[in-house]
Design a protein that fits this description.
- The structure holds two protein chains of two kinds.
- Chain A is of the alpha/beta class.
- Helices cover 56% and strands 7% of the residues of chain A.
- Chain A has a seven-stranded mixed beta sheet.
- Chain A is globular.
- In chain B, the strands form three sheets. In chain B, strands 6, 7, 8, 9, 10, 14, 15 and 16 form an eight-stranded mixed beta sheet that branches. A five-stranded mixed beta sheet of chain B has the order 1-2-3-4-5.
- Chain B is of the alpha+beta class.
- Chain B has two domains: 108 residues, no CATH class; 189 residues, no CATH class.
- The chains are: A alpha/beta, B alpha+beta.
- At the A-B interface, helix 2 and helix 4 of A face helix 9 of B.
Chain lengths: 358, 305
């Protein structure tokens, strides 16, 4: 088993071309199940295979894992909807817009990207001026800060784009309350007012909540992934693939996306996201769009190195998908994510605190 | 082929290379490790277990027990357990490699076997029907389980009772019995055939050791059983015997606390718990010695058959 060559593309190729799984042997199925579990994409994989009528070709044991993942994901979506109803009860007395981000937004939208997606925390965005009131209301409803050290408090309150994560005292659900989409210390400061102005109020059961406009939703998801540490890189990229495939049905979407990314000074992460979506999920992105974005993005890292880094870290976090350099690439990406998040003096201060004080 | 039929050197080589595929409840788990203590631990505790052929049997999980970093191989050596890209526990000192494997395998089952109700309970069988022992840690559940299998009961599990959601039958997870502190010496006195692993001191649970499961229980690991009786045991030194019947509603409430995956299963899990509580006769037994509790369990078991 150890002598086998790494299969970094097994999972993504199967998600794109489920029919190829017809020829899989027992070993392929085993690795597919392990990799999809490690990448937190198993329920999504189950759905793709079921839609393509391939599931019955799987060994019974593989199918058991896939079907269980799907059951758990359904139960998870049920729990998220119940948390959202609770948030509405806690916050509706305040007259402030509450915007759902990422997984919670996909769930409330019943978007394809929500299908099978398991996430550990719920993310919301509220105006900075309303933070105190929102936090107090949440406290009254049983949400309390997870971080109790003075340093962590300061780290979040002064430098980050969110308050310290809150945990519900009974259910253990974690809630991230953001006031903007990027850490102010990163130097890129999109105006949250702008995001609220363009946001969309949901209908029906979720009319209390807003979500980001399609362009902003893609840009936020891209920033979150490409400024981050890629822990759930393949999963987040699959979200992006689903969002892009859906939003681009509207022909005006691509032009709007390029324009918005440029005006927010975020062309580079969007370009990275589109490039990797095309490479791994064969997303239908017009060549003119990436060319246009490339004109307004620049990075201090050479192109070949970025390509190598992204190729390494956008693999399922499983030994059967890794080679000798994967660990190094992850370390470099970790350094890069901090580099992007803070100016150097602050970074030095933060790291020395983590190293020597804690 | 069984573990005992492999020479220690061959077993060690296999653990370091392609891995050793063992049955683990409803799963098969491939174990890899380069730690010598794990080889001797497997020989001691898993001697009667069949080694499965990875070319024939579907491999559900891969578990790797090794040093967390190169430095930790030499400097204050530690072990960490990895399962398919995940690390469920913080690293432990090297000497605790075997307990870590056992805890890791429990984690593999309790966090993935969601086509079952997973109860934190021991379960044994006699006459084709199961007796389930559910209790909080420290109540003497595993010790009582060890005593029962030395008086003729078959071991299904000392730690996790898997109740199939499909038909309510209990799935055996035959594995070593986990013993803590004073119970290690108590179990040692049960008989000359008792095999107990090396004791690990200073773990999170105090001193721990494991007892080899009887070969007959290992051989019968595929025989699922209908639940018949549920006991909430409570051992206290010097306690008098107190035994009382518990109604299904009370049994349900108490059992909910011992259900690992109730929140994952939600409504389906609640139905399974209700079905289980109604299918069994339940008792609460407080005791201070095996001489009190074993005849009492026998009496209740005879009375209901």
């Amino acid at each position: 088993m150890t002598a086998l060559r790494a299969q970094p593309m097994l999972l993504t190729t199967t998600l794109c071309h489920p029919e190829r799984a017809r020829r899989f042997d027992k070993g392929d199925w085993e690795r597919l199940v392990w990799q999809s579990r490690a990448a937190e994409l198993m329920a999504q994989l189950q759905r793709v295979l079921a839609d393509a009528d391939i599931l019955q070709k799987a060994p019974l044991a593989a199918r058991r894992h896939l079907d269980l993942a799907s059951t758990i994901a359904e139960r998870h979506a049920f729990a998220v909807r119940s948390e959202l109803r609770g948030l509405q009860r806690a916050l509706q007395a305040l007259d402030v817009p509450v915007l759902l981000l990422k997984g919670a937004a996909y769930t409330a939208l019943s978007h394809r990207a929500a299908a099978g997606r398991i996430f550990n925390d719920i993310d919301i965005l509220v105006p900075k001026s309303a933070l105190r009131d929102v936090e107090q209301r949440l406290n009254w409803d049983g949400w309390f800060s997870l971080h109790t050290t003075v340093y962590d408090e300061r780290y979040y309150r002064e430098w980050m784009h969110e308050i310290p994560p809150l945990e519900h005292k009974n259910r253990g659900t974690v809630l991230d309350v953001h006031h903007t989409i990027l850490p102010p210390t990163s130097g890129i400061r999109p105006d949250p007012g702008d995001l609220f102005a363009a946001s969309i109020r949901l209908g029906g059961e979720w009319a209390f909540f807003h979500v980001l406009a399609p362009t902003d939703m893609v840009i936020h998801s891209a920033c979150h992934l490409f400024f981050g540490e890629f822990h759930k890189g393949l999963r987040d990229l699959y979200d992006l693939h689903q969002l892009l495939s859906d939003f681009s049905v509207d022909t005006a979407f691509w032009t709007a996306l390029v324009k918005r990314a440029r005006s927010l000074d975020l062309a580079l992460p969007v370009l990275d996201a589109l490039t990797q979506c095309v490479r791994l999920y064969e997303t239908g992105v017009p060549a003119a769009v990436t060319a246009n974005l490339a004109l307004s993005s620049s990075s201090p890292w050479p192109g070949w190195m970025r390509a190598w880094l992204f190729e390494q870290v956008l693999r399922p976090p499983h030994a059967s998908a890794h080679d000798r350099s994967t660990r190094l690439a992850h370390w470099l990406i970790f350094v890069r994510s901090h580099w992007l998040r803070m100016p150097l003096p602050l970074l030095a201060y933060h790291l020395s605190h983590k190293l020597f004080v804690e | 082929m069984r573990i005992a039929q492999l020479a220690p050197a061959a077993l060690a080589e296999r653990l370091e290379g392609e891995g050793v595929l063992l049955p683990c409840g409803t799963f098969s788990v491939c174990i890899r490790s380069d730690i010598p203590a794990l080889t001797s631990g497997l020989i001691q505790l898993y001697a009667d277990f069949p080694v499965l052929d990875p070319h024939e049997v579907y491999v559900d999980f891969e578990v790797d027990v090794s040093a967390p970093t190169l430095m930790r191989r030499f400097l204050r050596p530690q072990v960490v357990l990895r399962c398919d890209g995940r690390v469920p526990f913080k690293p432990l000192p090297l000497g605790q490699a075997m307990p870590m494997l056992e805890w890791g395998l429990n984690w593999v089952i309790s966090s993935h076997a969601h086509d079952h109700l997973v109860l934190h309970a021991a379960v044994v069988e006699r006459g084709g029907r199961a007796l389930v022992l559910a209790a909080d840690p420290g109540s003497g559940k595993s010790t009582l389980c060890a005593a029962l299998i030395h008086s003729g009961w078959r071991l299904l599990s000392d730690e996790l009772t898997l109740v199939a959601l499909s038909d309510g039958l209990i799935e055996p997870i035959v594995r070593p019995i986990s013993l803590k502190n004073a119970s290690i010496d108590v179990v040692r006195t049960l008989g000359p055939d008792v095999v107990i692993s090396q004791v690990c001191h200073d773990t999170a649970k105090g001193s721990v050791a494991h007892m080899r499961p009887p070969a007959a229980s290992v051989d019968a690991m595929n025989q699922r059983v209908m639940p018949a009786m549920l006991v909430f045991p409570k051992f206290a030194t010097g306690s008098a015997l107190r035994s009382e019947a518990v109604g299904p509603a009370h049994a349900l409430i108490e059992l909910t606390r011992h259900a690992f995956n109730a929140s994952v299963l939600a409504a389906v899990g609640f139905d399974a718990l209700c079905g289980f509580s109604e299918a069994v006769q339940s008792y609460r037994i407080e005791y201070g010695s095996f001489e009190q509790v074993l005849p009492e369990i026998d009496r209740l078991w005879q009375a209901q058959t």
